Amino acid sequence: MKSIVVLRPGSLTIEDRYIPRIEREDEVLIKVKSAGICGSDLHIYHGRSPVATYPRVIGHEVVGEVVEKGKSVTKVKEGDSVVVEPIFYCGECYACRMRRPNVCERLEVFGVHRDGGFQEYIVLPERNVYVFSRELDWNEAVLIEPFTIAAEVKGRGMIRKGDNVFIIGAGPIGLCLLQYLKLFDVNCGICDLIKTRLKLAEDIGADFVIDSKHYEIEEVLKYFSKGANVVIDAVGLPETFEKAVKIASPAGRVIVLGFDNRPSMISQVSITLKGLTILGSRLQAYKFSKVIELFNSGRLRPKRLITHVFSFKEVLEAFNLIENYPDKVCKVVLNF
């Protein structure tokens, strides 16, 4: 079979490997059909991930068909369409006992710490796969995993009907957040530097959009006079975190996504006087079933976010498009 491998930062190749075999009774063999390219895949390729190890088969937004199952597997059967939950956790540490296995002390992520899904076949434990409707298109089903990120953010931020939410960044995750939150009658604004993404945000249902080239705190306050009850930093830069704290309303919540090792210049006074809650949100915990239900019912419309589909053999062309033509790209999917 073919596998996309990042040998070391800046070096990617497509290798011939043996098809993996089921070695445990609780495992399933999956023929990969489609996989989404995430910003974290590009970070690993360029050596900017603070957690990845090399060499590494990347890719964690993966869907495929079950072709074989172990003797003790009962949740799935041959022929099922499945999506991968890309986290492995101990189940015993404090985080796991608090039902937050996404930040397990011994967390490993598929495609980051373990070889991932950018290959033609994968073997995974039964607990890491979820069945979705065969009527769903493979490429659209790739978006199930990114939408679980949105579901996690909603839970972490305690976002409720009628809340005023502002999203910094209209990339694929920011737009997933927007579409997901609008299902729950949330007032949502969003900003970005790229006009085509802002147009897409309007089409999805944003209550207002702001061009970040002309971004000022006052622009948000035109719409949310007391500030945003929840600010989601889907960019993750020091300056966007600083702006998030300034925009947040009294008793507001600031939710931070992404990784950046550089410090932000934030005084405690803003946090204390407004009584802010600052939250980090990573991956997801127990959100797949809910999101799959929304996909199966047609309430989520992932097709709007998919702009390009490539053969997996064209992975470098896909990377080049994402990095050099961001105004033309939202979600890029690889077909296997």
Rg (CA only): 20 Å
Mean pLDDT, all residues: 96
Distance between the termini: 11 Å
Which sheet architecture does the biggest sheet show? 7 strands, mixed
Number of helices: 11
Note the quaternary state here: single chain
Tell me the fraction of residues in β-strands, as a range.
25-35%
Secondary structure class reads alpha/beta
Helix-strand pattern, N to C? EEEHEEEEHEEEHHEHEHEHEHEHEHEHE
Number of strands: 18
What best-fitting shape do the alpha-carbon axes yield? globular
The unreliable regions are none
- Helix fraction bin: 25-40%
Structure description:
The protein is α/β, with parallel strands linked by helices. The chain contains eleven helices and 18 strands. Strands 3, 5, 6, 9, 10, 17 and 18 form a seven-stranded mixed β-sheet that branches. Helix 11 (315-324) links the parallel strand 17 (306-311) and strand 18 (331-335). Helix 4 packs across helix 5 and helix 4 packs across helix 10. The longest helix has 13 residues, at 144-156. The protein is globular, with a radius of gyration of 20 Å.
Supply database-style keywords.
336 residues, alpha/beta, six-stranded parallel β-sheet, 11 helices, 18 strands, 28% helix, globular
Sequence-ordered SSE layout with sheet pairings:
Elements: E1 2-8, E2 11-16, E3 27-36, H1 39-46, E4 56-57, E5 61-69, E6 81-84, E7 87-88, H2 94-97, E8 108-109, E9 121-125, E10 129-131, H3 138-141, H4 144-156, E11 164-168, H5 172-182, E12 187-192, H6 195-204, E13 208-211, H7 217-223, E14 228-233, H8 238-247, E15 248-256, H9 268-274, E16 277-280, H10 288-297, E17 306-311, H11 315-324, E18 331-335
Parallel strand pairs: 11-12, 11-14, 12-13, 14-15, 15-16, 17-18
Antiparallel strand pairs: 1-2, 1-4, 3-5, 3-9, 3-18, 5-6, 6-10, 7-8
Helix pairs in contact: 4-5, 4-10
